[in-house]
Fold:
Amino acid sequence: MDFLIFKAPMLMVQASLDGILLGILFALIAYGMALQWGVMNIINIAQGDLVILGGYIAYTMYLAGIHPAWGVIVSPIIMYFVGWYLYKLVINKVVDRDLFISILATFGIAIVMQQLMNFIFGADVVVAQSEYGTTMLFDNSVTLPNSKIFSAFISVLYAVGLVIYMKKSRLGRAIRATAQNARAAKILGVDTEKVYAATFGINAALCGVAGALIAITLTLHPYVGLPYTVRSFMIVIVAGLGNLPAVAISGMGLGLFEEFADYILGTEFRIGAVFMLLVFILVYRRFKLSKKREYLK
Amino acid sequence: MNKLVKLFITSISAITLALVSFSSSFAKVEGDYIVLGSAISLTGKYSSNGVHTQNGYNMAVDRINKMGGVEVQGKKYKFEIIYYDDESNPKRAAQLAERLIKQDGVHYMLGPYSSGLTKAIAPVTEKYKIPMVEANGASRSLFTKGYKYLFAVLSPANQYLEVAIDLAVEKNGGKGVRIAQAFEQDAFSQDVRLGILDAAKRTGSEIIIDDKLPKELNDMAATLAKVKATKPDVLVVSGHTKGALTAIRQISEMKVDVPMLAMTHCDAAKLSKQHGKKSEYALCASQWHKNLSYKDKFFGSGKKYDKDFKKEFGYAPPYQSAESSAALLVFKDAFERANSFDRDAVRDALKTTEMQTFYGNIKFGPGGQNTAKPMILFQVRCKGDECENKVVAPTKWASDKFYHPIPKWSERS
Structure:
């Protein structure tokens, strides 16, 4: 236990801001997961690996001399199609089976993706430089990398954009209808197969955005996807499905929780604390993973 | 259908049996060749360093074979290596070591890449009494288990950054310093940490931050904020390439001012290439540097090795390649002194190794670690946008003065 943070108020400000900025990014990934979990009832273990793949797209652009921030536009476009094809190739064959099969299938996708990324991009840890500089507050005692502020801003932008899209557009309404009652939606003429494919594509696109942001704020490596899957899983469990404001709040809450756990319990317990929290919340909410499935082919 | 399956299974078994009996006839020495075996990470998360290791081995095999090979009982032999890909997976590495020994009949082994994989293989080679010279497992625990057939040409992990603490104390006028440290939770980094604890005790230094980074972590902001608040004299970071890259990224973004920053894996992380001027003044532990003045008759000097390696593989050799090449030189020397292919004779010869290679002096301690070679420290220095690693310690090989303290971020362009 270390209470340094309570002795230095500036550390508290720093920790809170770091936590919130990081949490917003997690929330974006979690939103994608909540969306396709809610619509198809699939827990996507490959979520984190989709994020990393999105990051590598931005990194490839960076290598080609294009500013990696453009990745937040290019990467989701490519990732949408990756997601769409993944659905057609694998997911639609398992989506009507039980939850366990879909977890296994996406776990398989995760492994294949890791190996492919390792094969294509190599096993080196890489970073893309944004050269955005730093914002200094309170006489240089609190520093915020502009890349983190940028990433939080873009995350919010995409999340808000998606909410509007879901409310206003035809496809968005079809997705929401399918999530509510797939059978009724199908009877009323919604092409549920198309909706499922689009949902998986949108999820992958959100992962693409998050990946591009991670490339400029953190580091990329073919095998670091899993922590992102775990975090988004947690956020979704806390927030519940299909509730965007809750996802955002729970994301930021998790970011804050991690930072404070790091300061108080020590860095070595940071991830452990997240898992402890997960267990606690699962018990508390008695979350029913085996909720009734509603898939129609 | 059933018949077909049976036929298929029978024929596969027959082929396997034939292969097994055929490969058992492979011995340690085949005609003019001494066959060495190695499980190496050609795929998986260690694949880049695995390839560096393999290139180092291959370069030495070519060179030794070209320059007359190994002379045992008046006959010249050449080296040959059987490689298997261990997929960066310790279990797989142990299986492959078993296969190399039992099926391929290999009697002498070269190490894999990384401490973790070496730890997985060592019990196997020990069980079958197979001498193994390894060049990429530095964890201290490898040398405290009482292994009799394991020999490492590199300095153990606890020595990696001890020199840095000595240097900081020296700069502080001989008085103890305040140390902040962040180490990943893996065998290697924790051994580096033990070295720092020893050095701190020896020099009367105080450790004010002692963070252990989880393996999955790629964010050190909390540790660095603490560093900013407590203002230590030296910050030590070790967490493989990810740790090095994350540290430099966040130190520069958060404008953390420390007088001295010491790290591991700068080479492997291509720190100065990926981060450019932001990595300037970082002090890095290294097993080897081309500017050291060691010499041998196969590769000449470090500079010559660097040049030849570049010509052959198209990139500058990281120390992982250099130490791997040195492992072959050690084997050659041991075979010639043993003047026999008896495994125990070769092992005894390895035990009494005392030689100089382009990579450094080699002499094995009781646990199998190399006790004759110090670690070196280089500092990243930049001219314009070009950054280079300059050796600054130990003073005997220093090509440049150690720049201390690191200028504040507000003064850096």
